[in-house]
Write a structure and sequence with these properties.
Number of strands: 2
Helix content: 40-55%
Strand order of the largest sheet: 1-2
Shape: elongated
Largest sheet: 2 strands, antiparallel
Structural class: mainly alpha
Number of domains: 1
Length: 98
């Protein structure tokens, strides 16, 4: 489901081309890791919508295991450098935490 959607766009070349096209269209720089954003929310926040409390990202609302919570929480970190650096890294961490 979500993981499969991430896998479909995990090819670095495709993401790089998309970043280049978005930069040309909108006149600002896009990095591949920032293409996981939908509006102001990371796409990975979808995990909290499906398995947690939506915008309430506390562990008490989380329905899956703690390891998966930690992966999802890291993915939505306010500090960009603390987030996974690629879709592939997010997928690998998610699978390892299952």
């Amino acid at each position: 489901m979500i993981l499969e959607a991430f896998e479909e766009i995990s090819d670095f070349e495709i993401v790089s081309r998309l970043a280049t096209q978005l930069t040309a269209k909108y006149g600002r720089s896009f990095e591949a890791r920032n293409l996981l954003l939908l509006g102001d929310e990371p796409m990975s926040a979808t995990a909290f919508a499906l398995f947690g409390g939506g915008k309430d990202r506390t562990i008490e609302k989380w329905k899956l295991n703690t390891a998966l919570y930690n992966v999802a929480k890291r993915a939505v970190s306010n500090e960009r450098d603390d987030r996974q650096q690629s879709i592939q890294q997010l997928i690998e961490e998610w699978r390892a935490a299952k």
